[in-house]
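Review form for a predicted model. The reviewer records the input and the model, then writes brief findings.
Reviewer: anonymous (R2)
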Amino acid sequence: MPATFETPKKKKNSPRPTVWSEFSALAAETGAINLGQGFPNWEPPQFVTDAGIAAITSGHNQYTRTAGHPRLVELLAGRYTKHFGREVDPYAEVAITIGASQALYVTMQVLLSPGDEVILLEPFFDLYVGQIEMAGGTPVYVPLATEGQRWRLDAAALRAAITPRTRAIILNSPHNPTGKVFTRDEMLAVADAIRAHPRAMVISDEVYKYMVYGDDNGDSGGGAGGGGGGALSPSRHVHFATLPGMWDRTVTISSAGKTFSVTGWQVGWALGPRWFIRDVHAALPYMQFCAATPMQEAMATALERADQPYRGHASYYDWLRTQYAQRCAALAAALDAAGIPTMRGEGGFFLIGDVSRVRVSAAYLRAGTPAMPRMTRDWAFCRWLALEHGVIAIPTAPFFRREEEGEGGEGEGEGNPLRGRFVRFCFCKTDETLAAAAAALAEMSRKTAAEEAQ
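Model under review:
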């Protein structure tokens, strides 16, 4: 008789389906207009694909240096030397990873020990929680405050959350999922909060730094880390590591996938003080031998080319900001017209809509799913929107602490009162896709108004 294979017992905290698996399946099942996951639905610029082809056909197909392809780390060190206003050593202060997600993962593994706490500004990118817990750490939540259509840092709440166990604060600017860009004053408040806590670091997640819109975001421009546009300097983005005394307290994480519409290339990086990057370099060989050599070579070429004039703009980055600002405004107008008021989008490629006043069928509100057994209003709205109106969006419940967690991330608690109120819409889509979504949202609004009038 053939041997019977016995599956291992499930771990205590076996992973369940996620928001991404559920709504990706819904998108495939329904063929709905997808404003869900954050990846562009167009091809990258020609100069980027040309760089990829050239890298493959010119012999860059074998292993390269584990800590990063020499040409790419040297190029990044030169660019960040200008961004930071200090010399960056390409071989001691830069590490190349398989996307920003791996940069975050290896940072957590190197930085955290069991019992360490990591502060998350809520709502937060859901990936952070799992990576913190896999490294033995504990997430601690500090809610962002809301003022009208804006999000703001609650500096007093942040200071109160820091303890001797605090090992890191994750600062994501521009912020996923809210689209908030933290002002220089807010970043200075974060820096002031950790000065009295020598163990605390800041993990600065900057993957959307070339996507900052508008002209009135406080004082986020200027200074060593802000810049006023131009080819090298991301307009009005503040690099946290440039703040006084923060170079040795900051790990800067970024990538190229969002900027160049090549999310599948998976080229990311981490920069920081050499004492930290040394340990990252030591850990990387246990995760992979290297990020893909041709993609690293191609990205070095693309980064150089992007500083040059592009389609009537001073650089590719300036063109990119213009494109996304227009798409952000178009989607905001469509949502507002459909009765879904939006929080102000300042950067990145997401908008948050308030769906608390949109009528959703009670059947959706009652029906739990494997990914959300205890149904929330935002999740029910997104299922209703997909199945009844043909548009995919993402509920923000996964970006808030779980209901069973208290303020510090442990024990019973009601969670954040904003959980269940907001939905995330993605505007890194073609004009045709956004126009189709606007029409579907308008029809949704018309139908719900008619039903309420009956």
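Findings: Residues 46-306 form a domain with the Aspartate Aminotransferase; domain 2 fold (CATH 3.40.640.10).
Further findings: The chain has two domains: 19-43+315-453, 46-306.
Recommendation: see findings above.
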